[in-house]
Predict the structure.
Amino acid sequence: MDVIAKWRAYAEGHDKKALWDLLAPDAVFESPVVHTPQQGRDITFKYLASAIKVLGGEGFRYVGEWRCANGAVLEFEREIDGIRINGVDIIGWNDAGQISSFKVMVRPLKAMNLLHQLMGAELQKR
């Protein structure tokens, strides 16, 4: 199974061990609302597990995919509280088949503000 297939399986099934195994020890997460890259598997795991809890589930879907040798861009959509969220996951992986970088971009501003609020609440639980 390739990296993107493993990521999609995690996004659908929420298997935290599968996510942990998929992340490189030196993984970097970049958020649309956190100004500095978050470095390391532990913090990347925390953000991605929280993001799937907030965004995943009914109504979440990937609507586009673009790939290169060691990376992909996945466009997603979801509606929460009447706000349509549109964004992309920019995923890079290493030669071992582990995610080494994960960048999220979200639009419009109203959606980003909503996600900032929901992610903040979810991250405080962890």
Remarks:
- DSSP finds four helices and six strands in the chain.
- The chain has a mean pLDDT of 94.
- The chain has one domain: 3-125.
- The domain at 3-125 is CATH 3.10.450.50 (Nuclear Transport Factor 2; Chain: A,).
